[in-house]
Write the structure tokens for this entry.
Amino acid sequence: MSHAVIADKRPSALRGARLPKWSSWAIAVGSVAIAVAIGLGAGLDSRIQWGLIAAILFILGTYGIAARVEGRRQAKDRIATSLVWVAFLLAVVPLVSLIWATVQRGVKVLDVYFLTHSMGVVADSEPGGGIYHAILGSLEQVGLATVIAAPIGVLTAIYLVEYGRGNLARSVTFFVDVMTGIPSIVAGLFILSLMLMFDMQPFGFAGSLALAILMMPVVVRSTEEMLKLVPNELREASLALGVPKWRTIMKVVLPTSIGGITTGIMLSVARIAGETAPVLLLVFGNPFINANPFEGAQASLPLYIYQQYANSAGSTAAYDRAWAASLTLIAFVMILNLVARGIARWKAPKTGR
Amino acid sequence: MDISTQNTQAPPPTTQPPVAEQKRAARGATRPGDRIFLGLSRGSGIFLLVIMAAIAVFLAYRASLAISKDEGNFLTAFEWNTNLNPPVFGIAVLAFGTVVSSIVAMAIAVPIAVAIALFLTHYAPRKLSGPIAYVIDLLAAVPSIVYGLWGALILVPNMNGLFGWLNEYLGWTGIFSWEGGAPRSMLTVGILLAIMILPIITNVSREVFRQVPQMHEEAALALGATRWEVIRMAVLPFGRSGVISASMLGLGRALGETMAVATVLSPTFDIQASLLDPGGGTFAQNIASKFGEATEFGRDALIASGLVLFVITLLVNGAARAIIARRKEYSGANA
């Protein structure tokens, strides 16, 4: 609709009056200004209130002006448009605030010392110390979880796409879907019940098992999508040459989709790297460096953040460390995300369409 | 298997095998490599089913150990004293808190998420919608513990003004009355959960809105409908079931979220009528915060509450998936 407006600038008798294009911007600026004035005048100290007042003023103002100039139906349309824009801005605000807070407060103590020292001799309420032990624990636990979950996930996806027919495949598909929704703490409790059974103490690998349970369905889902993108002609050509089915899968299907599969695995790694609850139950946390995931409590980055927050009785030093560890964790997750997307673009399957 | 059985006319390998072997090869899955590979991949699929079953069985077993010794009523007791002899514990408070925080989260997140999905599919300039979808994905990638830290240290202090405001104008309802405690209450938790489940609801709704037949929209436009009328008459009715299942997926997330609730809420073991007064608890939060000092019996009791959470999320997610699956069947256009 808007194309027609741009193309034809002459006033037309067939069209009703329309507000100029800059009007919504003007109303937005006006309502923000009034909201700030009201906020300052009434002494409201919460910025959230300012924002809400601005949003309400913007919507009312748009409706009022549009109803007067363009008519009620158009006014309703404009209200919907502005509501949709407001909703979008509302969603962006927390993200910006979160990233801003993490970066601003995280850089305070984030340096080489912080990354290469543990909390071994530092009390939680004192400044100093670092996250080396937590990074080490996180890498080991997530690495082991990936080693377990990635092959099983990829093989399951191959079964579903290349072989799966009938009831077994249908129920696997359904339960993979349901499994993506298992709360992480329930996966932790499951491994915990096994550990109680065998009277075991917390250790890193137990956390890996719970993380693997959370990771598998995600890998299956993404790999399945990628395998479905491989054109059937490739499989048929290979089979027609007499290549066995398993070699067709290994040499034709997987190499074609390997970029997408890698992307899926990396995204799921990014997802489990931030999981705290199962690690809290199974790995328990440890201020000292423990490089052996199969014996003794370990630390992990998300768990470190939680413990710095929860066990420090409001000490600023601990909060600073928690923010710095959050920044490290977010940076790790975001880099994984970016690299994964890069690989997806670089190795996108050539569907030939 | 199916593909190779279709290929019975495939030319025989260069060295002519005997006829019987040739026949078997044509049926597929006779080569050792094929059999091993099929076994491995089918085995992985079965392994996933076994894990699901094992989760249910082991949780139920440990839970039964705890519940059999529970002196209170497991479903209705308002206490969580697993160290007493005999122990008394019940999930009533946790169930209430979980439901309330999720309802608040849904009430905030669903309208906003649907609006953002509409924004991405129907309002945003084409050039913007790609980057915006990416930003929404970033929102999903932030670990929940970071949301928890942000919620506890940034969101909570900023809620004071809003809480005072709600108390002043809506306090008479009882739901929004506030006694002035720290705003570590169900409403704050609900807002934080809403931020966290926004991406999943947005993404699924967006997929559904994308599938609305172009013809329906063009027909409405041709009749002179405004953009909003197109959305109300063509897009929303088509997408309703998709939005419902997306919301249920989000609900599943909100029900099971642990760390964000554990950091923000200041828990008590009773039921608060007001959303603004601190107190209450959720299943996951209770497990995380009680776990540290729990005895082995206490852990079994926590596992029992985890089993309830597992069953609830299973039902919610199963229902959501069933709705999505049914939709796929009748809208054949979107294969």
Notes: Residues 132-346 of chain A form a domain with the MetI-like fold fold (CATH 1.10.3720.10). The longest helix of chain A spans residues 72-106. Chain A has a mean pLDDT of 87.
